[in-house]
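Let's practice the habit of predicting before peeking. Look at the sequence and jot down your guess about where helices and strands might fall. Then scroll down.
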Amino acid sequence: MRDERSKLVMKKETFADLPQLDIPEGYKLRSFHPGDVTEWEHVIRISFAREIAFGDKIGFQPPFMPEKILFLCYEGLAVATAVAWEKEDGDINCGYLHMVGALPGHSGKGLGYTIALAALHRMREEGKQAALLETDDFRLPAISIYLRLGFVPLLVEEEHSGRWERIFNELMS
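Done guessing? Here is the structure:
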């Protein structure tokens, strides 16, 4: 489902309350390796239900940093991904949680939560003190994860208040 409205923005103000990172049994956490473009695009295509080219969202342009692109792998295959990115025009103390996705065949194991948390840990290791993300209204499972991780909505546009109210009503029903 493609939503043409503005992105919703959420922020985690501090990493002081970051939970311990526990990787589910049978899974391994790793960063991007040469040749991972196809695996990244596969996980994102399934997660977002549309084609998203690696070059359009991450690319190999400076400051490309493969260590910021994380994967959870099962039997050697990437099944979840998240990026501990930075906005070029953003606060240098604030990371940007980007392109979080997990394959549905591994649902129920907390992989979306785990890979997002791994990206937040990565940001903290880099000296970041907070994190931002952008999301869409229909990504309710992802929003639920972000709330559990301590992100809160930012009302950056007037119509965001009503959209967040609808989202919270849906999450509570």
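How did you do? The domain at 8-172 is CATH 3.40.630.30 (Aminopeptidase).
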